[in-house]
Each structure stands twice: as C-alpha cells, then as structure tokens.
Amino acid sequence: MKDRCRTRREFLKDTTSAALAGSLYLSTPLGVFAQPSVKTRVVLVRNKEVIDNYNKPNERVVQQMLDEAVTALLDEKDPVQAWKKLLKPTDVVGIKSNEWKPINTPPELEKAIQRRVEGAGVPEKNIGINDRGARNDPLFMNSTALINVRPLRTHHWSGVGTLIKNYIIFADDPSYYHPDTCADLATIWEFPVLKGKTRLNILVLFTPLFHGIGPHHFAPKYTWAYKGLLVGLDPVAVDATGVRILLAKRKAFFGEERPLNPPPKHVLLADTRHHLGTADPGKIELITIGWKDDILI
Amino acid sequence: MKLICSISAFFLFMVTLPGGICMGKGTSDLALLLPETILGWKVAREDGRYGRDTLYDYIDGGAELFLSYGFKRVINRTYVQANQPDMVVDIFDMDTSQNAYGVFSHSMETVENRFGQGSQSSEGLVLFWKGPYYISIMAHPETAESKKALIDLAKKIEGAIAEEGPLPELLTLLPQRGLARESIRSFHHHAWLNSHYFVADQNILHIDNTTDALLAKYGEGKKRSLLLLVLYRDEKAAQRAYDNFVKQYLPELSQKKSVKIEDGTWTACHLAGSLLIAVFNAPQEDQAVHLIDEVKKRLGQKGEDHER
Question: What ipTM goes with this model?
Fold first, then answer.
C-alpha cells in the first residue's frame, strides 16, 4: 500500500495531521492536538515494589496493579465486577502472552489475569495461555475472547514490539508482513480467528527495553525498572502511549534526540490507514495511578 | 565518469597501503572457528545453521537487518555449564568485510578495539567483527565465571579468523575533525537513514542495495551536525535521488546552498558526480557548508563537480 511521505519538516510545521506522526516518531509536543470530548481511556499504573533487585515480580503486587488498572479503566470499584464487564461465563478465553526470552510476559501476571478471568465465571478448562503455539492451539482456535498481554520493547524491524504486533504468530508467513518495516501489521487483526475478540490489552513495562543492540537486540544496560503496566481497550492507544514513554526514555538516556529506528510506522498506520484504534494523544485519556517518579509522560 | 574513476582509484590506494588491512577469506565451515569447550562450558546441542532463506526461523524480525547487509549464513552454538548462564554464540558470515562492518556499526555505541577489527561489550554481551564475520556472544545473567569465559571465547574466535578485511570505501571521505566515531553507520537500506535523526518515513534518497551510505555525527552536545554520504551506482541515479530529495524535503535549495529549517537548524545538500553529500541539524550555516567542503576536499575535486 502506498502512503504519502512524512518528513521531519512536516512535523516541525506543527500541523495537526503531522503532529500525530511526530508524536510517535519524534516525541513532538502535544499542544497542537484537538481535544475531543470522547476519548479512549488508557491506564498507567506503577508500583515501586512490583519487582525486586533481580527483577523478580512480586505476585501480590502484580495482582494489585492489574486490579487497580482494570477498575480504573472500567469505572468499577471491585475488580471481579470489572472483569465481568469484559467477559461472560460462557466465553472461551485465550490469553495471548509473549515468551521472548530476555523479557517475557511475567508468569505472575499471567496468573493474575487467569485468576480474574476465572473470577468472571469462566471455567479453568476454557482458559488458555499461549504464545508461539497459539496458532495451533485448539482453545485459541475456538476462543470467543482474547486477552492480549506482552512486554514493551524496541524491535529490530518494526521499531517497537507492540500489542498490535503480538498477534503476528497467527500469520501463516510472518515475513509477509515485513515490507516497509512492518507497516501493515494491523491487518492481522482482521483474521477471523482474531477479529473483534480482544477484550483487554496489557502492555508490561516492568523492565522495558528502550534500545537494542546485536543480533538478539538485547543488552541489559538498555532496560530500566519502570515498574508499570499500561492497560486499555484500544491496542493502538496503549501502544502509542508506550511509544511515547520509550521516546522520552531514549531522550533522557542519550541526552539528545534518538528516534526509534525504524520509526514505529505500524502504530501510526494502525490508526490512519487501518482504523484499528487511535494513536492520537489528543484522543487518549491517560489515567495515571501509583508511583510518579520519572514517569516520563 | 571521470569523477567516479577518481574516487575508485583513491579508494584502491587507501585499502592497499603498506601495512594496511588486507582482504579476508571465508572459511568453508563456520564450526571450525568455534572451540568444543570453554572454561568448563560444553556444547549443549547440535549447532543451528541458517542461510538467507531460513534466517527468519532463527531471528524473525532481526532477519531483515542482516539480509539488508548481504547476509550469507550463520552458525549458532550454545554452551552450557551447571549453575551458570548459557553462553550463546553466533557467527554471521556477511560475505564481505564491508558488510560485517556495516552490521556491526548499526548498533555501535562505543568504540573499542578489544576484539577483531572493532568490538563493543557490555554486561553479558560481546559484539565484534573481523574479516567477513560479525560475532555475537551472550551470557545472561552475567557471573564472574561467565564474564571470563565470554572474553576467552571472543579471543579464541578472533584468533581462528585468519585475516582482516577492508573497511567501506566511503569512510575515507569522512572529515576527521569533530567526528564522533561511535556514531558512524554504514548501510544499504533506507530504513537506517533515521538511525540518529528522523528525516522521512519513506525512501526519499533512493537508498537501496545498489548504493553505499554512511551517516556520522559531528561536534558535541545536544545539537550535533549529521553528515550523510550516499554513493550511487552512476551519476544519473544520483541526480534522480538528489532531485527527489530537494522536491520532497528541501525545495528552497534550488536558490541557496543551505536552508534553515523550521527548528532553526541548517540543512545542506550537494551532488558531486555520483556522490550525494548532505548535512542535517547544523547549528550554524557555515558549519553545514564547511562539512560539505571538507568532503569535497577529500574527494580532491573541489570546484570540478556539479555546482548547485
């Protein structure tokens, strides 16, 4: 698909259309955005105690953070009631995780999600957790609801490993989506096995990777203990918020502009071309809960 | 054409200087570069071997990076020892030393010469290149023992690679004064144009596998100038790229030597035969012009190319 060229100079001219791309590519200021009355809610919850000095998550705190985020997201006081808004007891629920070895979806978070899915009345036999095997997992094939959960990190070719990208495993040939630095990843969400099923998106920012080196795109020195979760119903809004945090961290760490490379074009185009959700910070209501130090957003 | 020949002769001279670097030769079996044991670590399982068609099976998203640098094959070996982290080594055969340097430069953050022709190390990780090979050794989380073994393994691999290889020719055109060496990026794919500074999300400079491109920072502090060199296959291709760049990014350039863009920094672009020279983010106009002039001096063709 051909798309018009977006340049640095266009972003700097501060037009509204350019500002959207600028916020994802350059971390440009948000002042130029329109402020619509109805916004997509994204919740950022942080807790200093969620991991120890060895980055081992604390199960109790993880559960608490998830509950705080989901209740804030859905305007509910009780987490079980909140999850009942997302799921019904007859649902077959696939929890799409991410097992990338250096930074995976923490098992403690998978357990916390499963606990709440069960709390919504879904029997254990109708709940599955999977990543690379999800494509051939009968439970995922027959699922009626999906929970999408993965860590935030920079990525060799798509710029950022996102919630949008977390479903690439359902593609017959993932490399088919590689052209133009994975620009059209959002089309995966149209697959019948996925379309309309995602009930909740959770981006894990316990120790995000903000820069990658080497063939495995990983070095511990480019992770930091942010100790957060980003949660929302709109995957694009959650991803776009995560990208802004990564850009802010890169600027703080390197002491100068360091754009994500390649630019996370797929997040922008998930909004402007594929209409999967909104990447526009002006259309996102960001609620922050908990620890505020070095929040970067 | 005369200019292209001059550039080629210049490069040929640079890479055959007495005592300089010589061409590297590939080994038939990459496993020959690896030891069977390393300070108590032993080979865990059969080596993984991947070529251009199967690299996706090993590093799916990362494959595109290596393919854009002429990747030929890779061997992956894991060493294990009880109560120690696994040590994972990859040797990428990039076909030429210029490509090995290019893929190494892609993530270069510091300039080290501990191993091979250039290396970079951090906690639990060593990256280096020598000849046509790019090597990565990882062991997480790092222990005192794994740190020692990692260094030992890097030395063994370095020693097993017989010869060094030449650097990309364009490097000889980089002005040395004010150059931030760790910022040099060598590439053949437009995606890496934005490594330091976002220019555009499309290929407005027509950078592809027929071009050699270099990007480098100059100066200190937050506002550093960036120099971009792109050598095209011929003058026609360079002219088309230049025209497109001016049209899409710098239309004012037809009237001036350099342009002050919206953030107050200066951008300049100049075509010298098949070589495009561009400067971005210069704090002052004379800095942009000076960098271009320095490259022209190095070309030895000042005043003889297409003046714009």
Answer: 0.80
